[in-house]
Amino acid sequence: MDGNEESYLTVAEVAQKLQLNQQTVRNWIDQGSLRALRVGRRVRIKRSDFERLLAEGYTNGGGSGQDAGPSAEDFWGGEPVGVAEPDWSAEGDG
User: Fold this and answer.
1) Report field, pTM of the whole predicted structure over 0.70
2) How many angstroms separate the CA atoms of 94 and 71, rounded?
3) Digit-coded pLDDT (tens) for 15-73
4) What is the DSSP letter of 49?
5) How many CA atoms lie within 13 A of 80 on its CB side?
6) Is 88's pLDDT higher than 80?
7) 3-state DSSP assignment of residue 84
8) CA gyration radius for the chain?
9) What count of other Cβ atoms lies within 10 Å of the Cβ of residue 82?
């Protein structure tokens, strides 16, 4: 085995190290925020890509340099959406 050979992590290992749900890591992979190799149904993350994610700050959308999509602020626009109206039909006539 070559001393320069890259080591790999599983989705579960990355999630455990970051104390996140595995689906969050899969979402980052699907969004392109975290590079991964797919072999059949298996997914592996290069340790160097994981370390780059940490160095760039995973809390800011993965830090891959790609647009991670709209933020919650973009979605809501800071505008109040109003107050829910009560459902009076659920109450009995008394």
Assistant:
1) no
2) 46
3) 999 999 999 999 999 999 899 999 898 999 999 999 998 888 865 444 444 455 555 55
4) H
5) 3
6) no
7) coil
8) 21
9) 6
Q: Tally DSSP H helices, then E strands, for the chain.
A: 4, 3
CA distance between the termini of the chain:
79
Torsion region of 82: left, alpha or beta (phi above 0 gives left; psi -120 to 50 gives alpha): left
Contact present, 35 and 66 (Cβ < 8 Å): no
Whole-angstrom CA distances from 36 to 13, 14, 46, 92 are 13, 11, 7, 56
Q: Domains (ranges, CATH) in the chain? A: 1-57 (1.10.10)
If you search the block for the tokens 């994981």, which residue do you land on? 50
Helix H or strand E encompassing 8: strand 8-10
Query: Which residues, 6+ apart, have CB-to-CB distance to 93 below 8 Å?
Result: none
The residue type at 25: V
